[in-house]
Every structure is written in structure tokens, then in C-alpha cells.
Amino acid sequence: MLGKDCLNAPCDFGLHSVALFFRQMSTTMENGMGGSWNTSREKTYKKTTSSALKGSIQLGIGYTVGNLTSKPDRDVLMQDFYVVESVFLPSEGSNLTPAHHYPDFRFKTYAPLAFRYFRDLFGIKPDDYLYSLVNEPLIELSNPGASGSLFYLTSDDEFIIKTVQHKEAKFLQRLLPGYYMNLNQNPRTLLPKFYGLYCIQSGGINIRLVVMNNVLPRSVKMHYKYDLKGSTYKRRASRKEREKACPTYKDLDFQDMHEGLYFDAETYNNLMKTLQRDCRVLESFKIMDYSLLLGVHVLDHSQREGGEPGQAGGDGRRPVGQRVLYSTAMESIQGDGKAAEALTTDDTMGGIPAKTHKEEKLLIFLGIIDILQSYRFIKKLEHSWKALVYDGDSVSVHRPGFYANRFLKFMSTRVFRKTQRNTHPHLCTTEVDKIGQDPQTPLVEEVTIPY
User: Fold this and answer.
1) Domain 224-431 has CATH 3.30.810.10
2) What would the pLDDT profile of 86-144 be if each residue is shown by its tens digit?
3) Where in the chain are the domains?
4) Could you tell me if residue 70 is left (phi over 0), alpha (psi between -120 and 50 degrees) or otherwise beta?
5) Which residues form the PIPK domain (predicted)?
6) Is 4-213 a domain of CATH 3.30.800.10?
7) For the residues of 305-373, what is the DSSP string, one character each?
8) N or C: which end of the chain has fewer CB within 10 A?
9) Which residues, listed in sequence order, are joined to residue 163 by a DSSP beta bridge?
10) Count of beta carbons in the 10 Å neighbourhood of residue 387
């Protein structure tokens, strides 16, 4: 494996050292990185085995990040968002790429300079990015959704790699200039942070991937996990999903299982302001059908189980918070520019302190996901026929403005609530804040995306 001193000292992955790096990586792969290639048992995606896909991802990212460090830093230009770089990695190897046990493939990198700039914006150093994605085997995660996407997690909990459809990748390319202009101005956001967009081509098949921030750390046990949209049509976890060790519940399940999550007034206001701003950004991009991924860690359960928040559900590799700036839930809603070190502690692991109506202490982890859905013809048609059969206001797919308003109303009244001090400290009373009741307040200018 790569030397662990890479985390403590700068690693110069310029062109002159790419070949040496790949020789080290090739040895690592021969010793087991990426898992065994057992076609009789292994999961496949587009006729590609999981081990071949993971190995190709790590080989491709290893090459492109190493090659990119030799290019000088400069301001990002508009044309940088539309650059596509490509490298061929034959199984027998080449002058700069190692031999490998997978089929020949071509690895494409979209907007490499632009993504480098934005990784730097969030404090991700090239050697840390490379170490996280390449040094250890990727961990495959289950996907409770209907998209059929594969999800991989880096062993240090920092990054998620997700396979996306061609239309989603194209939409992200069009979205990049305006979307990252917003992130540059508002890094404290619950919107997903995309750190790279790639494509693997092999045997006439294209597999597109995005690298993004990880919302739910493995190092904290999530006693409850939800995918919330603010709709009710088919918004209950299936029986198969409920049988899993860590199921992902939905909107109707949340209403059955909780009477709201209670925050102090300042935290509630910061959270709802962040959600409102983010929803207005998504509306300006004509995006809908997104979700709030919500993880709930019950501190009282953890104490009864004899563990600490940082030890409850992980592998012990990350006793402290994430290194990436603005990546934790607490950092994402802070509005006063507090230092990251002050926000992420061993007690909270970056989660947001909250309580149940019974005064149980909680840590909340959350982020907006699945934003690569544009309300265009297909989605308009889907909403139209569903509205003929079901209550049109209850279905998930809806025009962006209506979707954002319904989403905010559900979050501000059903999911998140504000605690008020009273003469009975053992009781929680709530106030539905003005935020969420008047989601029409313009917070961002509308951005037009070229089609």
C-alpha cells in the first residue's frame, strides 16, 4: 500500500512519479485490493463485476489525480467546465499505467481543473484525495432506492462514489458553472458536494461515476435512517427494506415513529434557513424529486449499549470528525464562520444535537441527496398520469416550485421543531417558525441552465 506517511507529509504525484506510484498500486492490487473476481457469485453492473469496477475506478482516479498535479494552478475559466480528458489503460500496461487483471478500459475525467479548484475550496489536498480513494479497498453499500445505482464508500468515511445514468451526468455537466458559483459563495450548505465526475468505457459499455461527500459516517451508529421527500404516495419502506439490519425508512414511517426532532431556537433557525436557501437554489435550477437523507443517533441507546458516539457503529478508524471542510451536518448549518475544529468534537462527531419529545438526547446527521433530476418532459408526463389516478399534491414528482414549498413545509412542521423554555423543564413545547411558512421569499436569483 502507499506509505501512511503520505498523510503527514506532502506527496508529490507529478508526472515524474506517476509510474512509481502505479507500480506500488499494482502490487497492492495483486495483494487483494478490489477483492476477488468471482463471476459466479459477484454482483455485476452493466455486465461488469464489482471487483473489476472498483479496481478500474481506483486505477483511473490514481492516474488522473497524479497527472493533474503537474498542471499549474490558475483561475477556472468557463471552458474548463466542458473539458473532457481521456486515458487508455490496457490490461498489459503501458509506460505510465500498470498491468492489471481487468479488461482494457478507457477512463474519462470531466472538467478536471474545475473539480480540482472546488476540491481545494473544501480543503481537500490532492494527496489526501488520492489516499482516500485509492489506498484501501472501496466498500460497497446497499441501495434502498429504485435507481439501481451502485454506491461505494472510501474506507476513511470521507467520500461516496455513485454510478449515475447518462442523463444525470449530462445534467451535472450543465449544472456545474451555476451550481458551483453558488457553492463558492455559500460553502455552508446541505446540498451534495461533487468532487469529481468520471466515465469508464470498456467493451462498448459506459459507466459514469460521481464522487461526493459522505453524509452518514460509519463511525456513528444510526439507530434510525430516513429518506424524506415531503410526499405521501408510496412513501413507506417496503417489507424487504424493513427486514434489513439498518433499513432506510420514508416519510410515512417517520410520522408513525417520531413526533418530531427538537432543536434549540438558534439551531432550528440556522437549519431551516439553510434548507430554505438550498431549496431556492434547486428551484432556480428547475430541480425536483430530491430527498433529505436523515440519520438519527440516539445517545441514550448508545450509553445503554456501552459505547461512545464515535465507536457505536464504525470500525474504529476515525475517532475524530471528517477532514473535509463544511462536510459535517453541524458545519453545514453554521452561519457565523466558526472554525471547523470547534464544531467537530468527539462528543458530537459533527452531528447536530437534538432531542425527542420525551427528552431523549440525539445526534442528527443530514444532507440533501439525489439532485440530478430536472423537471423536464419525462417528469412532467410522469406527474400528469399519476395525478389522474392519485392525489396530485401527494405524489413525489412535481414541478420544482411546488416541490420545494411542500418539502420545506414538511421539514419545518413535521420533522424539525423548535423547543421553547417554559416553567416545566421536563416538557418540550414547540413553535413552528416563520421559516417554512413563507417559502416564497426569494433568496437567490433564478439561474438559467442551457439545454
Assistant:
1) yes
2) 999 998 988 888 888 888 999 999 999 999 998 998 889 999 999 999 999 999 987 65
3) 4-213, 224-431
4) alpha
5) 49-415
6) yes
7) TT--GGGSSS-SS-SS--SSTT-SHHHHH--S---HHHH--TTTTTPEEEE-TT--EEEEEEEEE----
8) C
9) 209
10) 15
